[in-house]
Structure prediction request, 301 residues.
Amino acid sequence: MSGEKSYADWIAVDWGTSNMRAWAMTADGTIKDKIACDKGMSGLAQNEFEPTLISQIEQWLGTSETPIIACGMVGSRQGWSEAPYRTVPTTPHGTLSLCATKDSRITLHILPGLKQDKSPDVMRGEETQIAGFLSDNPDFDGVLCMPGTHTKWVHISAKEIVSFQTVMTGELFALLSKHSVLRHSVDSKDWDDDAFINAVSTATSRPESLAANLFQIRASHLLDGTEPAVSKAKLSGMLIGAELAATKPYWLGQNIALIGDPALNEIYAAAFKAQGLETQSHTGDALTITGLTAAYKELIS
Prediction:
């Protein structure tokens, strides 16, 4: 379609459950502008996705078609248009799903998520970060730990995702710290490094005692006046320690790379260091852009 060229050569979109982010991109992958909003998948009806997107990116559009590459929950069954899961072992990127749109100024392509049939598991969005990581680190062989609400552990070999495992550590921390009896003991913005490391070691060596040890956080606060910063660090350490114990077959003897928010990466790096392991850290947002750019270049090649 001929017409006025848009401000962006193409648009990258990461559309999750709670939030949506978009970037105006040049053909070579340079960011010209970006937006973020709280219009996540969970708050939208199916017919609201396109108007929501247009309302956020319209200032970047001309009258000619602008390609949009999207990842995340926008491609889920409850999203704009389902991009079916691909089964591991496989490469992170698969065939893009072309989504029907009403606005002639855009063409929308959605990246598929990944599924694992044996030991059932799924991911949407993380596969794009993995693609970005492998674009920058093509020879990596080892395990990716992707901290978040649902932390992903991903075995990488020969540029493929061999297997993966999801652990709900972040969601458990949020539930326990905000909606359980522990909320009275962990309400703090501060942090105690020693308490965290001690809790990681305790939970890693005795994960079966997790439930009992968690209540001791409350009892210690009541009886000994333990500071909330200490209690908060203990709660995080116990949950991450239990996660490390459960995922030991993944990380033992492997190269380990962390992909996520820098603050979360730092916490997990400290937990690994307590086990005598060194890690490398990468920012998840940056790798999302790299992964979407790689998908765009595949699309136009």
Q: What stands out?
A: The mean pLDDT is 95. The two ends are 19 Å apart (CA to CA).
